[in-house]
Amino acid sequence: MDYNYKGLRLVYSGTQLTEASAAELSQEYNVVNVDDESKLEAYLNTQSLFSTPDVIMIEVKDEERVFSIVEKIKNNPLTSGLIIVLLGNAPDVKLRQRAIKAKIHDLYFAPYQMEDLKDRLNFLIKFKLIKPNIEQLSVIKKERAEYKIPTPKRVFDVVSSGGILLVLSPVLLIIAALIRLDSKGPVIYKSKRVGTGYKIFDFYKFRSMKAGADKELKNLSALNQYSDDGSGANAFVKIKNDPRVTKLGNFLRNSSLDELPQLFNVLKGDMSLVGNRPLPLYEAEMLTSNEWSMRFLGPSGLTGLWQISKRGKGEMSDTERKKLDNFYARNYSVWFDIKIILGTFPALFQKEKV
């Protein structure tokens, strides 16, 4: 289905928008170019309930000034629902981290493709602008519509995860004790993950790496299992023969016992038994196009299609993994889930250390 966003107002703050790019955006949106940050602030101060823009794109030149404007936008009930996209001149890790913390909808670094940017805007408009601006002015704050696990699937998740936790409770206690004896650090590794509908939650695993392993990740990119698909950057990260893994951690990972604490995530409703794996923030932020965002529209889960189809195979590429995720998001069902669960058991013990 094609969507027409011509009636939506997109405000562009910056000086680098070319005539060709402006014309391309104008084909789908009502584009208003306000030049620099000072003119942007002046423009926003003149807006009313019926003229407030829907999307704003800001070139980041004066970082402090831009984030000050963003804070004002988010604190104003008239503009709090505005979609914000930042455009940086060059890749900047600190800027990316700051954008995530400020809950910016997306951040692009030059050079970027206008088609990719338009795809991302279309996705954000379709799934973020669920309610009209007038509803955002209500004194009573209402939750936006969110994906809910279908009742039969949720009942199956609760009964299954609760039963498994009860039966395996002695095993969980033994593993916890062994981790304590094996190396320093907490028993449970907790990290932020992005699940269905870009929902962020605390994700649980038995710790299988030495303390401070996250800080070493950037130095291990050459060992990434997922081959480059031509984009120059991998969305997924999985390290072959990861040197950060402890001796006990190797056994826990190869037997998938490190995943058992995720049953508590299933019990809480953060995820399902079967679905697309919830991703770390640094992975999720790279899946920006509408094509790959499809994987976030289905349930996230403990096991899924890619785990049983190509798990542990070094030749799996970013594109293959994303296609499997998208296929599941479009076609999941109770019977499909049962088939995946049955296929998971042979995949639990794998030869490759990944």
Automatic annotation (TrEMBL):
Q: Which Pfam families match?
A: Bac_transf
Keywords annotated in UniProt:
Membrane, Transferase, Transmembrane, Transmembrane helix
Domain (Bacterial sugar transferase) ranges: 153-349
Protein name per its UniProtKB record: Lipopolysaccharide/colanic/teichoic acid biosynthesis glycosyltransferase
Signal peptide as annotated in the record = none
**Which family does the similarity line name?**
Belongs to the bacterial sugar transferase family.
Transmembrane helix is among the record's keywords:
yes
MF-aspect GO terms: phosphotransferase activity, for other substituted phosphate groups
Q: Where are the transmembrane segments?
A: 158-181
